[in-house]
Design goal:
Layout (H helix, E strand, L loop, with lengths): L1 H23 L4 H18 L7 E2 L5 H32 L3 H4 L4 H18 L1 H5 L10 H10 L6 H16 L9 H19 L8 H4 L16 H33 L5 H14 L9 E2 L1 H9 L5 H18 L8 H16 L1 H7 L4 H17 L1 H23 L1 E5 L2 E3 L12 E3 L4 E7 L4 H11 L8 E5 L8 H16 L3 E5 L3 H9 L2 H5 L4 E2 L2 H17 L1
Parallel strand pairs: 6-7, 7-8, 8-9
Antiparallel strand pairs: 1-2, 3-6, 4-5
Helix pairs in contact: 1-2, 1-13, 1-14, 1-15, 2-12, 2-14, 3-11, 3-12, 5-15, 5-16, 5-17, 8-9, 8-15, 11-12, 11-13, 11-18, 17-18, 19-20
């Protein structure tokens, strides 16, 4: 019973949002409802979270609007299907946990940027401006707004202000019924009376702009061709990354409330399936919706049944009440989306992040301004690149390479089996310890240390007890070192190689190249072999 009530309430809450997100994305309002119905059902049926609610969200508005303006509805369908395939592959490859490591400043940066952009898209309808075509980019939008400010219409503006006040203050009376739904019902009724009985026709409604089809859509084929696919790949990648981040973030927030743990890979598979199927019926991208998921939890939703019921409720509304949506004023939907943009802005979090280290602030601001001024696709790609470079820089800074030529202090060692506190190195033996992952970020640092060698040595011991992983560049460096050392008559011995790194050596045949005898488990064993080798050389 609790799932039934939660599903009904979430369905009612999702109604105005689905319509508003559909229109703001540049498609007809029923497309938003279809997305919430089909996508919401698939996400609940297949998802890895028991309480996740899927559907269209504000995060996709900007990227979807841009695709529709440039490539049309067919281009949007192709991009969404490709994004769905990407999400499906992410889930099958078990990359759900990896997505969670996307830096927080990037998430806040583009989320805040999206919020500003959504607010900007609603100025025309809120102020009732007469503009034939609103530009897609941020700066051009505001230029056009100021140029057409003389067409300001008081009545739509009043409707928008009243809608905002209702949405903001109605929750003080009850939180069971969403303020956005109350605002739409009241303002639709008032505007209907104003238009039909008082002759005030300046207030534009959904029906003035769209023809609504209150029926379930038939599946249609999507015309794929390589040229369009190549053009839409960057946008599809953005949809996939954005969908993965938002859905997993929503599921993680839900976990903290219900005390359960979601399956991130199953969630990605569900999101992928939803985004592959929904475009066939004319829908827009789907992801997990934090606000609707929290509404589901707060109203007693415990199982995926609540999400399925939410989809059924929306379907019944579309079939039986769909024609009534044409009377909803556009200014009222603008008020709904302005509140959505404010909630998305996270301005308090944004402000607090400005006090973080300069590298985090740089990532935050670059992602934010690129999202607002240019494009969300560019913002995410460049933001991720900057974050990765900064991460590699930090790892490289924390990875140290030390050289020992006399003795090793064993008092704090954990990979030795001798009782002595110090291990003396014979003349002609040098020990190089790599303290951290050995990847391409520190390969040059290792080369630099090796080039500062003093007297010619007989044995080089490479301590790798703190090397958690090694990549192809690090392996190439080791192979080069072994090859050059062999030419110079110098033996290379590896010490403290963990199982993960040893597996890499076996798979790449490096183990045979260096020789199994030259890979030791302990530094003591390595020094013993080095000592025996040096003594043998002196006897020759």
């Amino acid at each position: 019973m609790s799932d039934l009530m939660a599903g009904i309430i979430v369905g009612i809450v999702a109604l105005p949002l689905a319509i508003a997100f559909g229109i703001a994305s540049g498609v007809s309002p029923e497309k938003g409802l279809i997305t919430a119905i089909i996508g919401g059902f698939i996400v609940s049926f297949l998802g890895g979270s028991s309480v996740q609610i899927g559907g269209p969200t504000g995060a996709f508005i900007i990227i979807v609007y841009g695709i529709v303006q440039t490539f049309g509805l067919e281009g949007l369908a192709i991009a969404t299907v490709i994004a769905g395939i990407m999400l499906l592959i992410m889930g099958l490859l078990k990359l759900g946990t990896v997505i969670k490591f996307i830096p927080y400043p990037i998430i806040v940066g583009f989320t805040s940027g999206i919020a500003i952009t959504i607010f900007t898209t609603q100025i025309k309808d809120w102020f009732g401006l007469t503009i034939e075509r609103v530009p897609a980019d941020f700066i051009s939008k505001w230029v056009v707004y100021f140029q057409h400010m003389r067409t300001f219409n008081f009545w739509p503006f009043l409707v928008g202000v009243l809608s905002l006040l209702i949405i903001i203050y109605f929750p003080r009376f009850t939180k069971k019924i969403p303020g956005s739904l109350v605002a739409i019902i009241l303002m639709t009724g008032i505007v209907y009376l104003l238009r039909n009985y008082l002759g005030i026709t300046q207030i534009e409604t959904i029906g003035d702009r769209f023809t609504i089809d209150p029926s379930l859509p038939q599946p249609e084929s999507i015309p794929f061709n390589m040229q369009t696919i190549n053009l839409l790949l960057p946008s599809a990648f953005t949809i996939a990354i954005l969908g993965a981040i938002e859905s997993l973030l929503s599921a993680t927030v839900a976990d903290g409330v219900i005390g359960q743990k979601h399956n991130s890979n199953a969630e990605l598979i569900a999101q992928g399936a939803a985004n592959i199927i929904v475009p066939i019926f004319g829908g827009i991208p789907v992801t997990g919706a934090i606000a609707r998921t929290m509404t589901n939890i707060n109203n007693g939703g415990k199982t995926p049944v609540a999400g399925i019921i939410h989809a059924v409720v929306l379907m019944l509304i579309l079939l039986f009440l769909g024609p009534l949506t044409k009377h909803i004023p556009m200014a009222c939907l603008a008020g709904v989306l302005i509140i959505v943009s404010y909630n998305m802005s996270e301005w308090r979090t944004f402000h607090s992040l400005l006090k973080n280290p300069k590298s985090d602030v740089a990532v935050l601001l670059v992602t934010f301004f690129l999202t607002v001024i240019f494009d969300l696709t560019i913002a995410i790609e460049i933001g991720l690149l900057i974050a990765m470079f900064l991460f590699m820089k930090r790892v490289a800074e924390t990875t140290h390479i030390s050289v020992t030529t006399d003795e090793i202090d064993l008092s704090a060692e954990s990979d030795v089996y001798r009782e002595e506190e110090k291990l003396t190195l014979p003349k002609g033996v040098e020990v190089y310890e790599i303290n951290g992952p050995f990847f391409f970020g520190i390969a040059n640092k290792f080369d630099g240390v090796m080039q500062t060698l003093g007297d010619k040595v007989m044995v080089r011991i490479i301590r790798m007890r703190k090397v958690s992983f090694i990549d192809s560049t690090g392996l190439h460096n080791l192979e080069s070192l072994c090859r050059l050392s062999e030419k110079e008559g110098i033996r290379v011995i590896l010490s403290g190689v963990n199982e993960r790194v040893r597996e890499v050596f076996v798979k790449t045949d490096f183990k045979n190249k260096i020789g199994d005898d030259n890979i030791c488990s302990h530094i003591s064993e390595a020094v013993e072999k080095a000592t025996d080798y040096v003594q043998m050389k002196y006897k020759q």
